[in-house]
Amino acid sequence: MLTGCKRCVLSKTRIRQTAYRGNPKSATILVIGESPSATDDVLGKPFTGADSKILDAMIHAAGIPEEKCLFTNAVLCRACDSVNGVNREPTRDELFACLPLVAEIISPLTVDGVIFLGAIAEKYYKNRFGAVQKVTLPPPAMIARKGGKCCNMFTDGTNKLERFYDNIHS
Hints:
The chain is of the alpha/beta class. It has helices spanning 38-43, 50-61, 92-106, 119-125, 140-145, 152-168, and strands spanning 29-33, 69-73, 113-117, 133-137.
């Protein structure tokens, strides 16, 4: 699926493509972010960087079993303009180029809920899941910039996740 993809310009600056983290056979919650971090790019797996520890802590604090989650992004290559460049928002062309690859990952899933991390993930994927429970949170990097586990965004996000998970299992 991913090997050698050259559908967009991100193929020129990535180190590795990322597909997903988690087990598609047991996942009932999809977590979809914007694009891989620099750490994700090196490791070839999404949500592995320091900022992602904030997301993991929120999921854990909300009582959501991590093994029920499948983590991916709206684009599967790091959005930046050079190999060691600064992360940026993916362009519309990059997002549309990656849609078929992300669809291959998410289409076979039977999910009870979707967690969108940021407006881009929500905008491009919200209508793909019908009537399942959905929640949108700020991206983990934004929460980290605002103070991490000590900020209101963390507490508010954890509370939203807890209500989201309760609604799925009520």
